[in-house]
Amino acid sequence: MSEYYSNESLIQIALITLVLGGGCAILTGRTIALTWRSIWTAAITMIPMGLAVRFVHFVLFDETLLAPRTLVIEIAILIAFSCLAFQRTRALQMVRQYYWLYEPRGPLGWRPRQDASSPAPQP
């Protein structure tokens, strides 16, 4: 990590990127899922969030503002956090709101209930 961050320790990187940026990404992914938007919205909104995280590194620790590799890594981390939060929230939504149709399948998924009635076959 030292080749990407010249003026920061590992604790500072984790605090800004993972705690601050990751926390915001989790909240954003959750909010986007609650409003029934697509997962692509959750991923795309992480681009400006990654720029904001990069700006915090620049202002607080005198890092390079637009370091391409570091920016891509930070955006990828934020997208991962956001998409995981989105999928977890969506799975909970589907199971909670359509409890007669779906049951949980792990922490990030759902499946049709075995006791749910099948639609009638079309002639």
From TrEMBL:
Residues 12-112 form the DUF6867 domain. The chain crosses the membrane at residues 12-32, 39-60, 66-86. It holds the Pfam family DUF6867. The keyword Transmembrane helix applies. InterPro entries: DUF6867. Coiled coil: none annotated. The keyword Transmembrane helix applies. Keywords: Membrane, Transmembrane, Transmembrane helix. This is Membrane protein.
